[in-house]
From TrEMBL, chains A, B:
Superkingdom, taxonomy of origin: Archaea
Name of this chain's protein: 7-cyano-7-deazaguanine synthase
Catalytic activity: 7-carboxy-7-carbaguanine + NH4(+) + 2 ATP = 7-cyano-7-carbaguanine + 2 AMP + 2 diphosphate + 2 H(+)
Annotated EC: 6.3.4.20
Species: Methanomicrobium antiquum
List of residues binding Zn(2+): C219, C227, C230, C233
Function: Catalyzes the ATP-dependent conversion of 7-carboxy-7-deazaguanine (CDG) to 7-cyano-7-deazaguanine (preQ(0)).
Region named Disordered: 86-117
Name of the gene encoding the protein in the UniProt record: queC
Cofactor note: Binds 1 zinc ion per subunit.
Keywords: ATP-binding, Ligase, Metal-binding, Nucleotide-binding, Zinc
């Protein structure tokens, strides 16, 4: 029984892979790089987690086209990753819009056209447009070629508010796409055991399963030490604090 | 009014882009390379078509991860692309299975595990697993960052039999994924005007719109001249023959 596990190297996806293993699956680790600032560190962590789970394979995939399109501060280095406490909502929105209008500049110049974008002004500028659908499509291609029966993805409750492609309805709709878009002999189930858990509940589960959190990385901004201030650091630290355990990684 | 058009450089997608332009859309051309044998030729054709339509942008995207997974004769050069008339069904099936079991070998060696695959034994070995979902995910990311209102993809009737991700139900399910997975202000429609047409009907439409078919490429096997024998050449030639027009490209 094989499962493709999307392992970013963060605490959620690492815990998720431990849950999959605990359920009896052999792990096919799928790690994607897409030009994010902390790419190198995340890759290292994902590999350590996969090794610790005796994964069947470690597949590293580049989604650099998401960088080509631009529009997210995670991949567009001319945009700022804002601190969690940053209240300059207007600047956040302005950032999103401005960069969308120009793109990230990797595309070939084609005539003298000016292109204006209309991406949302309310979702966080760390949103990589339609990322989860890209991830799940790749995971499904991988699962189909390897005869895996499940795909584990760590979407979870606290992301709903900001990222449209983390909603449970999105996951359900994608399950239908998988069922219809793969060969009829294939039966791949999309597994999202964390969809209704918050980060603290996930961490509690992970500590019970012995996840080596020293080998996970969450910071959006820096490879070492973690900034401690971006959204991702904020929620990670909050979860450790709520459980009363010290986060084993270094913070600035 | 902008539309992302997936332009492979083949006759269907080129005709489709002309249809989109005819409907009043400005074209954002999206061309993907994924290690297929005729990559270079298709890129050249797609660029010519985009130029002839005064496209706003030409975006070339690599989906090389589909090559990493293996499992299709279009990207795995150790497998044969069979001639249309080839009746060795058993060999076709054997080809599919064997290569799936080993993968394409790009992945990092990870332990000493042996992985066996169970991909379909009845769909053609030119099938790239779940390719259309990967294409549509990318197209949607692109559309969202550019504020496009539509995505045109050339799925069509005669492909249903073989490729599961060309079915109309698949397209409908993906439309739902788009609606749920993009920001609420975004409204992107998936357009498949060819879904119920056959190749001859598409060609008739294209000739009326003045599509320069000398700048399109269909052959699965060769960059020049076209082999005239693979499935793709066979159906193209049949369409031209049925209309009684000479195909302007060279055949072996």
């Amino acid at each position: 029984m094989k499962a493709v596990c999307l392992i970013s190297g963060g605490m959620d996806s690492s815990t998720l892979a431990y849950v999959a293993k605990d359920m009896g699956y052999d792990i096919l680790a799928l790690h994607t790089v897409y030009g994010q600032r902390t790419e190198e560190k995340e890759l290292m962590c994902a590999k350590k987690i996969a090794k610790s789970l005796d994964a069947l394979e470690f597949m590293e995939i580049s989604l650099s086209h998401l960088t080509q399109f631009g529009g997210s501060s995670l991949t567009d280095y001319s945009m700022n990753v804002l601190d969690h406490t940053d209240e300059k909502g207007d600047e956040k929105r302005k950032n999103s819009q401005e960069k969308t209008q120009t793109g990230a500049g990797n595309e070939e110049s084609f005539g003298s056209h000016t292109i204006s974008g209309t991406i949302s002004t309310t979702i966080p500028n760390t949103y990589v447009p339609f990322r989860n659908s890209n991830l799940l499509s790749i995971a499904t291609s991988y699962a189909e070629t390897r005869g895996a029966e499940a795909i584990f993805i760590g979407v979870q409750a606290s992301d709903y508010a900001g990222y449209p492609d983390c909603r449970p309805e999105f996951v359900e709709a994608f399950q239908k796409v998988i069922s219809l878009g793969t060969s009829d002999e294939t039966n791949i189930r999309l597994m999202t055991p964390f969809v209704n858990l918050n980060k603290t509940e996930i961490l509690k589960k992970g500590l019970k399963l012995g996840v080596p959190y020293e080998d996970t990385w969450s910071c959006y901004k820096s490879n070492h030490p973690a900034c401690g201030r971006c959204d991702s650091c904020y929620y990670r630290l909050k979860a450790f604090e709520e459980i009363g355990v010290k986060d084993p990684i270094d913070y600035a």
